[in-house]
């Protein structure tokens, strides 16, 4: 028996293998006083402001590289403005004007004018919304009424959770820092007075008490006195290790003696020539900020304006007095008064009629001409006494351009049922108007240590992307700056079996794997879910010897079968666990109790060491951090907690397999919102598992758009859904029995058509992982037609591994994800945006439009991008820039090869990737076309090769591999399948050619 050592090296906690710190070079840098600009590429400029003059040259946790080839650019000072111009953008900064804000830093790119930085400074007597300020480890929530503004900062549940407000004392002397908060029954089960710590300008904190309130809807104030000189200061509310936390903070204010708590919100300006968000304006009266209707720009909209409401922006930089177009983006559905009709709004007192929209999820624009004085003035939208009954999204001053996100991400899709539209996501890199600002100010250094405290001095560090419609360029800049998506081993792109049901080593050895072989279904990865654990099925830390009597032997058996395995982990430990005493001792007594469990702070080196050591006795290839109902996290400031622990997991195995982008401590199981530290580092280590969804046609449909949306928003390429969905919705009895608390139960199953279509989708996703909550997901558990379909597509998936692994390597280098929305390849086509939720491209050349409707035969409406497209299954040819209805039975689905594209796959079905070198490959081409593809192969990513395959009309040339690794493939049989324009195919073979030999195949 071939032996393989356990793949679990103990994490080196201090000496991490880190990139060399990035250092700015003089030739790409422009300094203007306390502002520094680094021109990294024609479409990417670093903007840094250091009030103390100390610029940061070290790499950060997000930004691991600034060593870009210096692009051509010019810089000059004109009329008091520093102007930096590249071939793609112009950036202007008003010299000597201080920290970046809306009115002193301007971006022009691809016809769009934007203010990349928004900086809200709260002067004495102004309401300072907590959600407008810097936050550490916390989300903005809005689920309790009575708050002001868009919401409140929720939780303060973990050490170093904080909010830091920039305030301006208008005069020197004694001030009051007043905090508006709610203190109900906390996540720790207690309802008691709480504490936070208050510090000013980084000085020693002092504890303040926040008395309990009746419930979470009961908002009150608490205060502390401080002596301040006039000018800007940083006021921080933080949960230290000595504080109880577990409160919600709505806002704060810097007040003088006797000054009442304000109602006027501090805001930043709206620059002339830009589109500004309604929710960031001064919002008065009964108007509320909401986010329940999709399609809005920014973080929300001002909802259903009524009489007495007011939305006001201070407009700056108007070049001359005159009348200018003001563009309102709005929705006008059926109002609270029961009417659905044109409405009247008042813009600076001027009436304007707003037409209806189809509903509240349909947004439109309307333009009104408004006189404005030169310089700065207020622009105010109000309503007649009868009310406007419209939702207001944006206000564009002398511009109609909208900053609308393309794609989006979230921590997971847990609980998503598919019955209420697409899941809500959060914006990332790509926007329709072609610019983005990555604010890296909150990020720690690459070591994981926080940046130096700068006292009262302002500091900003952000990266301005100005890419227009060059979306691939933006993704390339992001990958170069923050690191590319992790290249997984080739076997990870094969077929995974994963099921939440009690399995034993004998089950896998004697039943499951033999059944895969018996039924001709490939298999690469065995996922062992939580029931393998001894002592406690949820958070035990030893393998149950009755189920897995020889854990190391099980892993070696799996390797001998050509398989890899992962174990499910929940990150807490019970006090009665056999390993608890040792873990607590390693943690030096710092593990904290929550209910029956003890929790880990991964930001503390002792606790992280204790956590990592618990894994040592459980051999596996990589770990599945399943999260759920525990509360471990990280107190490390400036690092997204998920990202931090996932990086540690990637050092313990081949890669991290987890939810991502946030933390349990900042939003619960599904993690509804993003953290300010962002999703940018996550892709370097992690295969993103999107969580527990419901098994519905709606969930299946939403999965299509979600994968590509997350990819373009974050640069993440490795995304894994539960193929088949997690939670049963049908109650159809399955094929297996199991015990649940002593009761005999049956597994459930999907309808045959839903199962077949879901497997079809999975075959073209980044990861194909069959998974369920005690539900049948194996082909032979279904009827003949569904079984045949699933078997066919899972074998196709396995044959595609060489192609998929090559796309994954491209993603690692270029930042362009494997699964792509159509607009990534065709940004000039309106249809490419309209179809992003129903079809996608796998690489540049394969168009996939999954079936999402029931029935053994389905009709799918497909838009074909420019070019010529050949149906992979039927050979039918479709001309580009056209629509067609494609009919498919369970044995086919709409998949099309672009003319000029080359699709490489294994020639024959194989049982797994690890034991089957790709010595027989087939290349699909279309007759008469020109194109090329580079096949990437590696040996556990240590040695690699690239084989360039070129089609030039009636000739296909395979160029000798560049680089190689011994023992993989020395000779290779090539087959070319030529798809003719009439729908027929022909096959040409070149047998047993050396991998180092040029092969010319005449077709």
Offer a concise description of the structure:
This protein has twelve helices and 63 strands. The chain is mostly beta strands. The strands form 14 sheets. The protein has an eight-stranded parallel β-sheet. Strands 9, 11, 14, 16, 17 and 19 form a six-stranded mixed β-sheet that branches. Strands 10, 12, 13, 15, 18 and 20 form a six-stranded antiparallel β-sheet that branches.
3D structure, described in words:
The chain is mainly β and 1003 residues long. It folds into six domains: 29-118 and 435-468, no CATH class; 122-255, Jelly Rolls (Sandwich), CATH 2.60.120; 274-397, Galactose-binding domain-like (Jelly Rolls); 411-425 and 478-487 and 686-899, Glycosidases (TIM Barrel, Alpha-Beta Barrel), CATH 3.20.20.80; 524-684, Glycosidases (TIM Barrel, Alpha-Beta Barrel); 917-1002, Golgi alpha-mannosidase II (Immunoglobulin-like). The protein contains twelve helices and 63 strands. The longest helix has 18 residues, at 697-714. The protein starts with 28 loop residues before the first strand and ends with a strand. Residues 1-25 have low confidence and may be disordered.
């Amino acid at each position: 028996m071939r032996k393989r050592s356990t793949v679990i090296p103990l994490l080196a906690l201090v000496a991490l293998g880190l990139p060399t710190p990035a250092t700015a070079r003089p030739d790409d840098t422009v300094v203007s006083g306390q502002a520094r600009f680094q021109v990294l590429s024609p479409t990417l400029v670093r903007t840094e402001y250091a009030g103390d003059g100390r610029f940061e040259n070290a790499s950060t946790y997000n930004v691991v590289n600034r060593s870009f080839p210096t692009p051509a650019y010019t810089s000059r000072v004109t009329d008091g403005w520093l102007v930096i111009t590249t071939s793609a953008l112009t950036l202007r900064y008003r010299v000597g004007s201080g920290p970046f804000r809306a009115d002193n830093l301007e971006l022009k790119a691809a016809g769009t004018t934007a203010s990349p930085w928004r900086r809200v400074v709260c002067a004495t007597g102004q309401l300072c919304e907590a959600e407008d300020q810097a936050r550490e480890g916390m989300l903005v929530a809005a689920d309790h009424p009575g708050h002001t503004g868009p919401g409140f900062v929720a939780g303060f549940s973990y050490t170093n959770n904080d909010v830091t407000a920039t305030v301006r004392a208008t005069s020197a002397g004694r001030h009051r820092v007043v905090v508006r908060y709610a203190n109900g029954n906390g996540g720790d089960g207690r309802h008691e007075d709480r504490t936070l710590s208050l510090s000013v300008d980084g000085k020693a904190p002092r504890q303040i008490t926040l008395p309990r309130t009746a419930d979470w809807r009961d908002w009150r104030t608490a205060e502390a006195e401080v002596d301040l000189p006039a000018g800007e200061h940083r006021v921080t509310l933080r949960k230290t290790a000595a504080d109880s936390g577990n409160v919600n903070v709505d806002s704060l204010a810097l007040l003088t003696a006797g000054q009442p708590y304000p109602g006027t919100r501090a805001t930043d300006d709206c620059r002339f020539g830009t589109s500004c968000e309604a929710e960031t304006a001064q919002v008065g009266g009964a108007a509320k900020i909401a986010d329940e209707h999709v399609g809005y720009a920014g973080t929300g909209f001002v909802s259903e304006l009524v009489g007495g409401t007011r939305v006001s922006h201070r407009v700056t930089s108007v070049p001359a007095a005159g009348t200018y177009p003001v563009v309102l983006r709005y929705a006008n559905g059926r109002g609270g008064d029961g009417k659905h009709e044109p409405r009247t709004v008042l813009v600076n007192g001027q009436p304007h009629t707003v037409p209806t929209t189809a509903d509240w999820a349909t947004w439109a624009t309307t333009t009104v001409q408004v006189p404005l004085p030169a310089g700065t003035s207020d622009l105010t939208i109000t309503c007649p006494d009868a009310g406007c009954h419209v939702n207001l999204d944006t206000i564009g001053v002398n511009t109609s351009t909208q900053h609308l996100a393309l794609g989006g991400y979230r921590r997971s899709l847990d609980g998503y049922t598919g019955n209420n539209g697409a899941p809500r996501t959060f914006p990332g890199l790509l926007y329709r108007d072609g610019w983005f600002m990555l604010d890296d100010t909150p990020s720690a250094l690459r070591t994981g240590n926080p940046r130096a405290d700068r006292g009262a001095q302002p500091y900003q560090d952000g990266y301005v992307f100005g890419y227009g419609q060059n979306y691939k360029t933006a993704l390339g800049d992001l990958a170069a700056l923050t690191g590319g998506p992790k290249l997984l081993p080739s076997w990870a792109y094969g077929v995974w079996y994963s099921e939440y049901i009690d399995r034993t080593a004998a089950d896998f050895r004697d039943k499951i794997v033999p059944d895969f072989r018996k039924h001709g279904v490939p298999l690469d990865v065995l996922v062992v879910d939580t029931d393998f654990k001894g002592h406690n099925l949820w958070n035990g830390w030893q393998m149950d010897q009755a189920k897995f009597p020889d854990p190391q032997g099980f892993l070696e058996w799996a390797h001998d079968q050509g398989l890899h395995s992962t174990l499910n982990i929940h990150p807490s430990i019970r006090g009665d666990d056999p390993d608890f005493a040792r873990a607590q001792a390693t943690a030096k007594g710092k593990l904290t109790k929550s209910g029956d469990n003890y929790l880990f702070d991964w930001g503390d080196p002792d606790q992280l060491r204790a956590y990592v050591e618990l894994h040592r006795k459980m051999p596996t290839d990589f770990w599945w951090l399943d999260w759920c109902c525990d509360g471990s996290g990280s107190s490390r400031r400036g690092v997204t907690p998920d990202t931090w622990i996932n990086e540690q997991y990637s050092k313990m195995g081949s890669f991290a397999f987890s939810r991502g982008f946030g933390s349990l401590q900042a939003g619960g199981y599904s993690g509804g919102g993003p953290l300010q530290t962002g999703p940018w580092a996550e892709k370097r280590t992690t295969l993103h598992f999107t969580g527990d969804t419901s098994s519905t046609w709606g969930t299946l449909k939403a999965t299509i758009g979600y994968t590509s949306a997350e990819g373009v928003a974050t640069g993440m390429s490795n995304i894994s859904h539960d193929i088949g969905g997690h939670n049963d919705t049908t109650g159809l009895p399955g094929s297996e029995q199991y015990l649940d608390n002593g009761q005999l139960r049956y597994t459930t199953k999907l309808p045959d058509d839903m199962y077949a279509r879901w497997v079809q989708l999975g075959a073209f996703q980044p990861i194909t992982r069959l998974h369920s909550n005690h539900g049948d997901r194996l082909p032979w558990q279904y009827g003949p037609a569904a079984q045949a379909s699933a078997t066919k597509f899972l074998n196709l998936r396995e044959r595609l591994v060489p192609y998929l692994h090559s796309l994954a390597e491209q993603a690692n280098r270029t930042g362009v994800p494997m699964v792509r929305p159509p607009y990534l390849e065709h940004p000039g086509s309106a249809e490419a945006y309209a179809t992003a939720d129903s079809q996608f491209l796998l690489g540049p050349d394969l168009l996939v439009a999954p079936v999402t409707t029931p029935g053994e035969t389905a009709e799918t409406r497909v838009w074909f991008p420019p070019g010529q497209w050949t149906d992979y299954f039927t050979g039918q040819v479709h001309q580009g820039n056209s629509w067609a209805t494609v009919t498919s039975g369970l044995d086919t689905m709409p998949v099309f090869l672009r003319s000029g594209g080359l699709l490489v796959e294994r020639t024959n079905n194989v049982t797994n990737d690890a034991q089957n070198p790709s010595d027989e490959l087939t290349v699909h081409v279309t007759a008469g076309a020109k194109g090329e593809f580079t096949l990437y192969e590696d040996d556990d990513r240590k040695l690699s090769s690239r084989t360039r395959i070129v089609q030039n009309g009636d000739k296909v040339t395979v160029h000798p591999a560049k680089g190689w690794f011994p023992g993989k493939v020395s000779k290779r049989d090539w087959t070319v399948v030529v798809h003719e324009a009439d729908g027929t195919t022909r096959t040409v073979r070149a047998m047993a050619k050396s991998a180092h030999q040029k092969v010319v195949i005449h077709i």
